[in-house]
Specification:
Blueprint lengths: L1 H12 L2 H5 L4 E3 L5 E9 L3 E7 L2 E6 L9 E7 L3 E3 L2 H8 L11 E13 L2 E10 L2 E15 L2 E11 L12 E14 L4
Antiparallel strand pairs: 1-4, 2-3, 2-11, 3-6, 4-5, 5-7, 7-8, 8-9, 9-10, 10-11
Length: 187
């Protein structure tokens, strides 16, 4: 009988989904979100770009930052830069290879509170057929009226995903930034 109780207790304690069920979930409103990136050119200037089509969900409760979760799905065919020639090249096989890999996906797997208003999200970024670890830092901004601003930032190595073109001109580090506003949760 004692073994049965231990097994029951172990089963009860291993159910994080029950704990996360109470965490408020916020789907991104495209009119209140932006997903940008930048890479350094010639070691001097940042070349910005963005994804115009993406969606995702943030599970967030300020009282339980260690239960924060983020998923983002990017339509890689929507990547663009200010120069149409660069946009076409980014979508091509040398970089995103949007025809073969039209979507990228980030899913957090664990969250750590770094400081007040700062949370590290450890997850995987699937891009160009590879899923590699990526740490995203979530910065919780100010409340304005009934909304809360957040910014999630991270840095990836483009060569780790097979994007090795123009190494002499472009840096390897790509900075990602997701900015969004959500309805302000209680707390």
């Amino acid at each position: 009988m004692r073994l049965g109780r231990r097994a029951w207790l172990a089963g009860l304690l291993s159910r994080p989904a029950m704990a996360q069920a109470a965490i408020p979930r916020f789907a991104f409103d495209p009119s209140l979100a932006a997903l940008d990136f930048s890479v350094t050119a010639l070691g001097l200037l940042d070349l910005p770009g963005r994804f115009t089509r993406f969606h995702g969900v943030l599970a967030f409760d300020p009282a339980a930052p260690e239960q924060t979760a983020l998923t983002v799905e990017m339509d890689v065919t929507s990547v663009e830069m200010a120069d149409p020639g660069r946009t076409a090249r980014l979508r091509g096989a040398e970089f995103f290879d949007a025809q073969a890999f039209p979507h990228a996906h980030f899913a957090s797997q664990a969250a750590r509170r770094l400081a007040a208003g700062r949370i590290a999200l450890d997850g995987l970024l699937a891009l160009r057929g590879q899923a590699l670890p990526l740490v995203i830092e979530l910065l919780v901004g100010e409340r304005r009226g009934g909304s809360l601003g957040l910014e999630a930032t991270g840095r990836l190595s483009r060569s780790a995903y097979g994007m090795v073109a123009d190494r002499a001109l472009l840096g390897d580090a790509v900075r990602l930034s997701l900015r969004l506003r959500i309805a302000a949760p209680a707390g």
